[in-house]
Design a protein that fits this description.
The chain has about 375 residues and is of the alpha/beta class. The chain is about 25% helix and about 20% strand. The strands form 4 sheets. Strands 4-5-6-9-10-11-12-13 form an 8-stranded parallel beta sheet.
């Protein structure tokens, strides 16, 4: 039996009269309510951005939201456009955005011994000058212990809470070694952000991503934990860290960022996970809400997008990271869009060794995405 009810938000009652069901004389009645698309009223102003460039960038996202999805890729070791160049070589088009990561900014003497000099913003400026949108994120590394020397080879630091004695709660307590590290590293990043700001470059900003990790696991199993130090001591402390960074960057004069919070949501399975709404810093500290999905089908993409848009109806919802996993290829972005997963943008992770791009999506996935009429790429003259 099929029930056809094309209207949204409609309750349908069905009764099966007695005698129609085999092996019983009983009648059956049941009802259901069809899905209703949540009212979306995206906030038109930024929570912290005040430069004209960042206002223009946010307006650009707003103008495309629900109409097109903006393409992006993660940089190869964070301060270049090598992967974007590979996507261009494969498909004939550059992604519209390139994501840079401050993951190695902890290294003493930036630029020495072959390490990145983040204070040289040339790679970012070159990308922006060709019309590319700049994304920024930060795998915020901390020393493995108070007395560990952070060496020039990059050893002695980690994001993994199981490999460090760094306590996230102490990061906000004056007089602790964690507090000293927390603010000295933020000073380094803020200095680069201000250089970008002075150069007229605005960016999306995705710090403290995937904060909940597996902490919303319903079973209580031992693996139900956060996998980054910033989430290791729970949602309340996580939000304090976010707000501390937000306030500190504001104090420093950083005004060129669109702040993006990354939800863990259901990890695609509501039977095993609770929502992570408790980890949300608050509307006044977040411009967009992201979700990181790997190896998720078109249907899972739609589920995650729909749940997030319903939970955060005033925020644009974006696909923070995506790519292949042990579950298979990431859902075809064109098919995701058609199915209703209308992400504001998507960003493919690097290091996947998939095809000629060396990302976590295959050549076939990329060719399909970059030729899709719903996907925004860098103008072809670049």
């Amino acid at each position: 039996m099929k029930a056809n009810c094309p209207d949204e938000g409609t309750t349908v009652a069905i009764t099966i009269p007695a005698g129609l069901v085999k092996n019983t004389t009983a009648a059956y009645s049941f009802s259901f309510t069809t899905y209703k698309t949540p009212a979306v009223n995206i906030t038109k102003t930024l929570v912290a951005g005040q430069t004209q460039q960042v206002k223009d960038l946010y307006d650009y996202f707003l103008g495309l939201y629900g109409k097109k999805v903006i393409s992006s890729v993660m940089a190869d070791v964070n301060w270049n456009t090598k992967i974007a160049d590979k996507v261009k070589a494969l498909t004939g088009k550059y992604p519209a955005m390139n994501c840079f990561d401050f993951i190695h900014i902890y290294v003493p003497n930036q630029g020495s011994n072959g390490w990145i000099n983040y204070y040289d913003i040339t790679p970012v400026k070159n990308w922006a000058d060709k019309g590319g949108i700049v994304q920024l994120m930060w795998h915020f590394n901390v020393p493995t212990s108070e007395n560990t020397e952070v060496k020039m080879d990059g050893s002695g630091v980690t994001c993994d809470p199981t490999k460090t004695t760094f306590k996230a709660s102490n990061a906000l307590k004056e007089g602790t070694w964690e507090n000293k590290w927390f603010y000295q590293e933020m000073d380094k990043v803020a200095a680069v952000l201000l250089k970008l700001q002075d150069a007229g470059i605005a960016a999306t900003w995705r710090p403290f991503h995937e904060g909940a990790g597996n902490a919303t696991l319903k079973s209580g199993d031992s693996w139900g934990k956060a996998w980054f130090w910033w989430g290791a001591e729970g949602s309340a402390n996580y939000k304090k860290l976010w707000i501390a960074m937000f306030d500190y960057f504001k104090q420093k004069g950083v005004k060129n960022l669109i702040w993006i919070w990354t939800s863990q949501n259901f990890n695609g399975d509501a039977t095993k996970y609770n929502q992570d709404n408790d980890w949300y810093p608050g509307d006044q500290y977040v411009d967009m809400v992201a979700r990181d999905l790997y190896g998720n089908s078109v249907e899972k993409n739609k589920q995650e997008f729909t749940e997030l848009q319903a939970a955060y109806p005033t925020k644009m919802i974006v696909l923070g990271e995506c790519g292949k996993s042990e579950n298979g290829e990431q859902g075809n972005i064109g098919n995701c869009w058609t199915a209703g997963a209308k992400w504001g943008h998507f960003m493919v992770w690097y290091q996947g060794k998939q095809g000629s791009t060396d990302t976590m999506c295959s050549d076939a996935w990329w060719k399909s995405a970059m030729s899709d009429s719903n996907v925004v790429t860098l103008p072809t003259n670049h």
